[in-house]
């Protein structure tokens, strides 16, 4: 469920209400402030959350997502190239380059308004990554499981935006298609995080000790990089 709040300093704040949340979280997205908040939150409590976080919101990065013809976006073990195609008029083409069977492409009409429709391009890219992610992510995940001597039930590709990975109690590990936009060390960190849940289905000290071992003592550094990752698309 989505609603809005008009703030004198930050303007209109877009709010998504989510089950299971306890606190309000804020982030800038293309110049606008967005919030995730618990279902049932009152207007008074939300305003108080804004006021309590106001200084942090001011300091938070306001990175704009932009696209342009000829742009090359680094992806996990590949790249995505965006081009303007004069042969296209009302549609687009996206997929794996048949020449090298590895790199990705997105062809848009040459008269496409890139500045006005960055949200549309972001959705197209996300859908493309969802179609091809199993070819890139699952082999690495399987190799990590083998390296660590672990046997998850299976790996799957999911659509998660906030949660980049998930491990079920039955041992199924789901990896978000958004991981395709991250470099290998960060992808490996998420994979190892979920693999550690096969042993500890919580975030206890024992879990973090095991995960840090899986990551060669780099858990905190890698988790911080994930937290501050500059996403090249709107999420």
The residue-averaged pLDDT reads 93
Portion in strands: 25-35%
Radius of gyration: 20 Å
Largest beta sheet: strand ordering: 1-2-4-3
In short, what is this structure?
This protein has 235 residues and is of the alpha/beta class.
Describe this structure in words.
The chain is of the alpha/beta class and 235 residues long. Helix content is 34%, strand content 26%. It is built from five helices and eleven strands, in the order E-E-E-E-H-E-E-E-E-H-E-E-E-H-H-H. It has helices spanning 43-59, 118-147, 184-196, 205-214, 219-227; strands at 2-7, 11-18, 25-29, 32-38, 72-75, 78-85, 93-96, 104-109, 154-158, 165-167, 172-176. It has a four-stranded mixed sheet, covered by helices on one side. It has a four-stranded mixed sheet with strand order 5-6-8-7, with helices on one face. It has a three-stranded mixed sheet with strand order 9-11-10, with helices on one face. Helix 2 (118-147) crosses helix 3 (184-196) and helix 3 crosses helix 4 (205-214). The chain is flat. The mean pLDDT is 93.
């Amino acid at each position: 469920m989505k609603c809005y709040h008009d703030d004198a300093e930050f303007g209109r704040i877009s709010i998504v209400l989510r089950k299971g949340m306890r606190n309000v979280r804020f982030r800038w997205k293309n110049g606008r402030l967005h919030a995730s908040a618990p279902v049932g939150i009152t207007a008074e409590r939300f305003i108080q959350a804004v006021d309590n976080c106001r200084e942090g919101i001011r300091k938070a990065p306001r990175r704009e997502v932009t696209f342009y013809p000829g742009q090359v976006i680094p992806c996990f073990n590949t790249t995505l190239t965006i081009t303007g195609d004069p042969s296209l008029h009302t549609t687009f083409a996206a997929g794996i380059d048949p020449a090298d069977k590895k790199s990705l492409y997105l062809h848009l009409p040459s008269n496409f308004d890139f500045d006005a429709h960055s949200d549309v391009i972001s959705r197209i890219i996300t859908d493309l990554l969802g179609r091809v992610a199993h070819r890139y992510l699952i082999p690495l995940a399987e190799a990590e499981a083998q390296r660590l001597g672990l046997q998850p039930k299976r790996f799957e590709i999911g659509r998660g935006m906030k949660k980049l990975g998930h491990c079920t109690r039955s041992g199924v590990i789901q990896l978000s298609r958004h991981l395709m936009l991250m470099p290998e060390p960060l992808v490996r960190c998420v994979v190892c995080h979920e693999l550690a849940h096969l042993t500890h289905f919580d975030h206890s000290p024992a879990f973090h000790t095991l995960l840090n071992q899986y990551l060669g003592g780099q858990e905190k550094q890698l988790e911080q990089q994930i937290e501050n990752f500059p996403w090249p698309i709107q999420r």
